[in-house]
Amino acid sequence: MTAFALGAKARAAGYRLRGFDAVGSTNCEALAAAASGDPGGIWFAALQQTAGRGRRGRQWSTPYGNLAATLLIIPDADASAAATLGFVAGVALNRALCQLLPETSIRIGVDGADGGGQSQGTRIALKWPNDVLADGAKLAGILLEAQKLDDGRHAIAIGCGVNALAAPDGLPYPATSLTELGTGRTAQQVFETLSDCWVEVFGLWADGRGTAQVLQYWREAAAGIGSPVAINQNGQIVRGIFETIDDTGRLIVRADNDARIAITAGDVHFGATASARS
Predict the structure, then answer these.
(1) Domains and CATH numbers, the chain
(2) Which positions fall inside the BPL/LPL catalytic domain (predicted)?
(3) Which positions ≥6 away from 237 have C-beta within 8 Å?
């Protein structure tokens, strides 16, 4: 076992932790624990994943020294409310990384999304639906997976991957790491900060009753709101202006004819690169 530790707030809130040097997938570990009857409230954290996965079945590479962390929870909320936990994780991860990354001038990313969101002065921004950007390049990603339990409830595995030491090679999009951004923060330090930020934002969410407040915090940290956007939905391209996310977390695009289009899934590209990439 490697030297991961929970933050003080997470310990006080009763969270548990299993740390690994390397593991196949922290999400798989979490879902296996749920199937074995674990009540939830446990983190699985590793410095390397050998069989990690991302959104829509894609591979998620975790080179050694980066952070792969998954929280297993069994919320007292219906499925529609539980689906918004990705935004809870996004806000928590955004807060953690903002604390760890030095504040300097913001650079415009090659995808046309700067690091400021709507709150200027920070290099970190949230990209719909599940990425965290630094200076416009991908720094972290989030993956939610659900598993129905015998009693009818759903166990939720909330996976967070952060490029602490290095960004993976050969990606089709710009990526960066905390090392490249000029901070020597380790995966263990990122995890400890994240575990405390999670407690704060999850408390606001309050089994779905505080979803509106969490979504507002997400909007305030969002990349690309008010900018041109293209969304690739399995080869079908939707273009327009990224107007907002609605009260269920759908991306709202204003098309050229002023129609509002609600997007539930797809690959998002901003600015001038949207047409080229799509």
Answers:
(1) 8-220 (3.30.930.10), 228-277 (2.30.30.100)
(2) 16-206
(3) 230, 231, 278
